[in-house]
Write a structure and sequence with these properties.
Blueprint lengths: L3 H12 L1 H8 L5 H9 L6 E5 L5 H8 L3 E6 L2 H10 L4 E4 L12 E7 L10 H11 E12 L4 E4 L9 E4 L3 H11 L2 E9 L11 E8 L2
Helix pairs in contact: 6-7
GO biological process, one term: methylation
Pfam families: Methyltransf_25 (PF13649)
Protein name: Methyltransferase domain-containing protein
């Protein structure tokens, strides 16, 4: 299978890394971060897949967790390493993660699965399931809509990124098919969280490995 959709998107992130890292702080899913860590034990080990410039890794470290971040953008990883030296970072494709099974208490997949083709998502969710410890927690945030598209927007400096959109029922089925128990799944519009935010709907989900 061609992975040009991923290569092209990573090239965009490398091209806009500094600007993107500065803008990204304004788009942090603050309630979802707090909810996610409320499910985790003290000193939990978290894997941030698609960690970008380390925004959420920094937050998790400050809360006392052990954090591993993975991404494919060299430039974003460089920023993350400087920003969060206490975390461990690796250049890895989330479709082929090379960690031991049952390695993590939590996996944070914030706006990362949406860059994959729809048919790639079940296999990646299965990888997440294998990497989590029993009772481990998976957070997934994706854009709510239908279809796939290459999109330009202000956040990406008008450079094109590939997005796959999801419906709530579809995401819930995909999580359950892998074996996850869905603890909560809901939608929210970004503009409801700030007058300067986008009119953009997201699906937030927290699932548990039995």
């Amino acid at each position: 299978m061609s992975d040009d959709h991923v290569k092209n998107t990573i090239a965009v992130y490398d091209a806009m890394a500094d600007k993107y890292a500065k803008k990204l702080n304004d788009y942090a899913p603050l309630p979802e971060r707090e909810k996610f860590i409320s499910f985790l034990p003290n000193h939990a080990r978290i894997l941030d897949v698609g960690c970008g410039p380390g925004r959420d890794c920094e937050y998790f470290i400050k809360q006392g967790f052990e954090v591993v971040g993975v991404d494919l953008s060299d430039k974003l990883l460089d920023i993350a390493k400087q920003r969060v030296p206490q975390a461990s970072f690796y250049k890895l494709d989330l479709r082929s993660l090379v960690f031991h099974p049952n390695s993590f208490d939590g996996i944070w997949a914030c706006a990362s699965l949406l860059h994959l083709k729809r048919e790639e998502v079940p296999a990646v969710l299965s990888i997440f399931y294998a990497l989590l410890k029993p009772t481990g927690i998976l957070f997934v945030l994706v854009k709510e809509d239908s279809g796939e598209a290459d999109v330009t927007e202000e956040l990406s400096s008008q450079l094109s990124r590939h997005f796959t959109y999801f419906r709530r029922k579809e995401l819930k089925i995909k999580l359950k098919d892998v074996g996850f128990e869905v603890e909560e799944l809901y939608s929210y519009n970004e503009k409801d969280r700030g007058s300067d935010h986008r009119d953009l709907c997201w699906i937030s989900s927290i699932s548990r490995k039995p």
